């Protein structure tokens, strides 16, 4: 049977140069773009909630016998919750298994910033191309309308 090749514009990125750890997504796909930008909006709301909870935990200054904050366990639990929430959201947007491919079993807040700094340029580049196509159409239509008015 014959076949055709369709270039969907997908992006495949290796994590730390490891061909076994690949992040794949399609910034041309409007559904992906919707999910990605919705996630950015979700981050803003969740960030405020997590920040308020962290500040409340930081306000506790009492130390235990070892000199550690008495609520160290609660602080670690909050960080784990943030990590698990973020990994879940990444999988929802980029596909199941993406967080595992990107981070392995690590749970660190810093790695999420690195992930988004790594993928966002690919997404913004493709989305700006799409937007500029529509902007050109709108500009061309406006130029045509302006020309009609001048002729009248």
How does this model look, in words?
- The protein has 152 residues and is mostly helical.
- Helices cover 66% and strands 9% of the residues.
- It has helices at 30-58, 72-94, 98-103, 109-151, and strands spanning 11-15, 18-25.
- A two-stranded antiparallel sheet has the order 1-2.
- The termini are far apart.
Secondary-structure blueprint of this entry?
Layout: E1 11-15, E2 18-25, H1 30-58, H2 72-94, H3 98-103, H4 109-151
Antiparallel strand pairs: 1-2
Helix pairs in contact: 1-2
What's the gist of this structure?
By secondary structure, this protein is mainly α. It has helices at 30-58, 72-94, 98-103, 109-151, and strands at 11-15, 18-25.
């Amino acid at each position: 049977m014959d076949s055709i090749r369709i270039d969907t514009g997908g992006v495949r990125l290796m994590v730390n140069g490891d061909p076994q750890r690949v992040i794949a997504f399609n910034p041309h796909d409007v559904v992906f773009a919707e999910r990605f930008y919705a996630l950015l909006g979700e981050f803003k709301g969740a960030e405020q909630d997590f920040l308020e909870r962290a500040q409340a935990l930081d306000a506790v200054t009492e130390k235990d016998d070892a000199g550690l904050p008495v609520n160290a366990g609660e602080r670690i639990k909050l960080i784990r919750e943030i990590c698990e929430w973020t990994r879940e959201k990444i999988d929802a947007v980029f596909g199941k298994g993406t967080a595992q491919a990107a981070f392995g079993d690590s749970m660190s807040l810093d790695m999420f910033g690195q992930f988004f700094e790594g993928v966002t340029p690919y997404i913004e580049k493709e989305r700006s191309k799409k937007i500029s196509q529509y902007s050109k159409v709108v500009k061309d239509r406006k130029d045509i309308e302006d020309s009609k008015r001048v002729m009248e």
